[in-house]
Amino acid sequence: MEKMIGEGKVVCVTGASGYIASWLVKLLLQRGYTVKASIRDLSDGKKTEHLVSLDGAKERLQLFKANLLEEGSFDSVVDDCECVFHTASPVLLTVKNPQEELIEPALNGTLNVLRSCAKVASLKRVVLTSSMAAVLLSGTPSTPDMIVDETCFSNPIYCKNLKLWYVLSKTLAEEAAWKFAKENGIDLISLNPGCVIGPLLQPITLNLIVEMILNLTKEATFPNMIPYWVDVRDTAMAHIHAFEMASASGRYCLVGYNIHMSETANILRQLYPTLTISNECEAYPLVEGAQVSKVKALTLGVKFTPLEVTLRDTIESLKEKGFLKI
């Protein structure tokens, strides 16, 4: 029997019950890895049941309790690991206290994980889940003919002035990660996905971006926007390639498609003729964003799933989880 690529290798996934992280755990187990997974509350079955039921979980998945804001909390989780996939970070669009709810967990949490990583002799690489939020908001007005790539960074002052707290949290966390990695000799790779959609593994948790798709079946209008879509499975696999490919380095923008929400709605109408899909665009002005280069992502072996397949699988998953009745 052919040996699996991850056989005998131990890796860590932080925030393992999250949307991208759950798929990452699933695919790592499929490749034979032993996975040490951190979760904030091990007693919450909604956070753990879908993970412990994965193929290979019984033999090769270990769950640990860890808190982003507790220094040393990740020491035992990352111990003996060859790679740490740091995905844990809060995703909130409305907050009362942005510093406490978003910025501190993202920034200090990332540094706490990296401090633990710096103590591990077996560690070969850290793969950080960042976001296109940390790429796109430079403060320079973007136009459809502009192309952004991995050299572009969001401007924290610009984000703060506009009160874009989630964008600020991801920008500051990634900025701090690069600084710490450089000072402590950690081989860091950052993945910057756009709007992540696709099937859900979690039982009842609906992430904000997938909810945008669900809302197309519930609301009379759709947002006047051009999202940067990417499939959750492509995103998770890119994380794995970022560890497995020795030549991987730096940042990777992960955006498969950027089309207007009206075109997204049209695809859903063709896939599901009996489904009522929003057909009126909201009235506020469209802010047209730049194109995102795929050149570097393709060198990582990323194969972007056709958007029609991603959208169909998203709807089917929403049906299966009980969020949508057709």
How would you characterize the overall build of this protein?
The protein has 326 residues and is of the alpha/beta class. The protein has 13 helices and 13 strands. Helix 1 (19-30) crosses helix 10 and helix 5 runs parallel beside helix 8. The mean pLDDT is 91.
C-alpha end-to-end distance:
44 Å
Q: How big a fraction of the residues is strand?
A: 15-25%
Number of DSSP-assigned strands: 13
The percent of residues in helical segments reads: 25-40%
Rounded radius of gyration (Å) = 19 Å
Order of helices and strands: EHEHHEHEHEHEHHEEHEEHEHEEHH
Mean pLDDT: 91
Query: What is the number of helical segments per DSSP (H or I, 4+ residues)?
Result: 13
Unreliable segments of 5+ consecutive residues: none
List the helices and strands and how they pair.
Elements: E1 10-14, H1 19-30, E2 34-39, H2 45-52, H3 57-60, E3 61-65, H4 75-78, E4 83-86, H5 98-117, E5 125-129, H6 133-136, E6 147-148, H7 156-161, H8 165-184, E7 188-193, E8 195-197, H9 208-215, E9 221-222, E10 229-231, H10 232-244, E11 250-254, H11 261-271, E12 280-281, E13 291-292, H12 295-299, H13 307-320
Parallel strand pairs: 1-2, 1-4, 2-3, 4-5, 5-7, 6-13, 7-11, 8-10, 9-12
Helix pairs in contact: 1-10, 5-8
